[in-house]
Amino acid sequence: MQGSASPSLSANDLACRRGDRLLFRGLTFALAGGEALHVTGANGTGKTTLIRALAGLITPFSGEVQHEGSVGLLDERPALDPDLPLGKALAFWQRVDRCQDPGGALTVLGLEPLLDVPVRYLSTGQRKRAGLAALLNRGVPIWLLDEPLSGLDRGAIEQVTALVELHVGGGGIALIASHQPLVVTGLTTLAIEEFAPNCEAEP
Amino acid sequence: MIGTLLRRDLAKFFPFAGGGAALPVVFFVAVAMLYPFAVGPDPQTLARTGGGVVWIAALLAAVLPLEKLVAQDIELGTFDQLKLRGLTEETIMAARLLAHWLSFGPPLIIAAFPAAALLALDNPTLELVLIGLLAGTPGLAAIGLMIAALTASLRSGAALSGLMLIPLALPILIFGAGALARQDHASLGFVAAISLLLVAIAPFAAGAAIRAAREV
């Protein structure tokens, strides 16, 4: 784990909108090292927007995000050049992150046979695993995972779950947005629909 | 980290690196080749008008690489991942500007030699064209980058960027080609000044544009 101080990630009274529509408001949570949060919600309820706000990629409508430690993001776009073979595309991020030993993550995720295949020919699940390898090689304490299980077969889902457990067990933070059930020990759940603005009338 | 980014950008955009990046240079020479067929082979006419044709060809060649310049990396999420690694959008765009210029400015300047031969330009004119292109192409690259970043999230951005670049590049064209008619070096100073200003603005304008593209 990178960074000597204990990592933390918190949102305080967060509200985000897409276009003119308010997606959620009053969203507050705090995560310390070794904790994992599963954000659930139907499509279009703002899971991705929440993750992008937490990553600092978009400005929230109101409220604030605080984090201690570097943030890593895995979403549906693995940021790998489609024209390059997977090995070369991953090598760019390894150089950026100054990763000394990239082989471990590739072996764990079963990517070694695919290194010569251009990224454009990879399947959704293979791309997802490649993105996860890039995230593993960064060695950051905070993981933001946007639908990490979509497109994965059952074996890969177990693998990803195990990796998240390992990361959290080692003192890291994981925030997973997924509409699929997730079995990770010590996982708390946050239903984003509870923070939707038109639910306020309900007792 | 910036060095790594620059190397990647250069590998992506440099001519003959694949992905059709050689197209602007080929286009540039093709225009110079077609012009004598269109107006006739009279050396005097060619020498008098040829310098201006080189400039127009350079300007149109600058439009060609814009489509891939920014939009693809927004789609792939490359800029998002770089931002998470602590690089600002301005730094990313400055590296992109340098890579873009290196992959189309110097190749155009080299391609100006065969173009000058095809258009029967004399040596003083060729010298003015070369200095002019050296001073003007950074400005063209800067305009191109700003437009590419602004139109990246639009559906028909590529077609629009071509239309937007041409009027904005007019000052460079007027002073660059004007130097040829009067055979003076002073106009080229203006070209360099315009380029310098555009290069200074471009990383900030393009950086703000890709930040804004995330919010939609």
Primary descriptors:
heterodimer, A: 203 residues, alpha/beta, Rossmann fold, five-stranded parallel beta sheet, three-stranded antiparallel beta sheet, 5 helices, 8 strands, 28% helix, globular, B: mainly alpha, elongated
Q: Order of SSEs of chain B, N→C? A: HHHHHHHHHHH
The level-1 CATH class of the domain at 1-70 and 171-203 in chain A: Alpha Beta
Residue share in helices of chain B?
over 70%
Kindly state the mean pLDDT of chain B as a whole number?
A: 90
- In CATH terms, what is the architecture of the domain at 1-70 and 171-203 in chain A? 3-Layer(aba) Sandwich
Low-confidence stretches of chain A: none
- The H/E string of chain A reads EEEHEEHHHEHEE
Instruction: Provide the gyration radius of chain A in Å.
Output: 17 Å
How is the CATH topology of the domain at 1-70 and 171-203 in chain A named?
Rossmann fold
Give the radius of gyration of chain B.
Answer: 18 Å
CATH superfamily heading of the domain at 1-70 and 171-203 in chain A: P-loop containing nucleotide triphosphate hydrolases
Strand content of chain B: under 5%
Beta-strand residue fraction of chain A = 25-35%
Largest sheet of chain B: none
Alpha-carbon distance between the termini of chain A? 43 Å
Itemize the secondary structure elements and their pairings.
The complex is a heterodimer of chains A (203) and B (216).
Chain A lengths: L7 E11 L2 E12 L3 E5 L6 H8 L7 E7 L2 E4 L11 H11 L6 H6 L15 H15 L3 E5 L7 H16 L3 E5 L9 E5 L12
Parallel strand pairs in A: 3-7, 3-8, 5-6, 6-7
Antiparallel strand pairs in A: 1-2, 1-4
Helix pairs in contact in A: 2-4
Chain B lengths: L1 H12 L9 H17 L3 H21 L2 H4 L1 H6 L1 H7 L4 H30 L4 H28 L6 H12 L1 H13 L3 H30 L1
Helix pairs in contact in B: 1-7, 2-3, 2-7, 3-7, 3-8, 3-10, 7-8, 7-11, 8-9, 8-10, 8-11, 10-11
